[in-house]
Write a structure and sequence with these properties.
Layout lengths: L21 H38 L12
């Protein structure tokens, strides 16, 4: 099985600053939400990838498609 190095993600700010206009606060909140969603999707992709690796090892069959013109 392949070992993966998961790069630590930088800490996400806990909330928007209070001395900024409302539209900037809203944008900061959206950025925080999108960063959380991105982190979740990366974890999901890693889980699917690991699931395929385990299935390929367990059943000894290639599951992923080969890239290139000839398949």
């Amino acid at each position: 099985m392949k070992k993966r190095f998961i790069q630590p993600t930088p800490q996400i700010e806990q909330g928007p600053r209070t001395d900024l206009p409302e539209d900037v606060k809203a944008l900061q909140e959206e950025v925080l939400r999108l960063k959380k969603e991105l982190k979740q999707e990366k974890m999901r992709a890693d889980a699917y990838d690991m699931m395929i690796d385990l299935a390929e090892d367990a059943f000894k069959i290639p599951i992923r498609k080969k890239s290139g013109a000839e398949q």
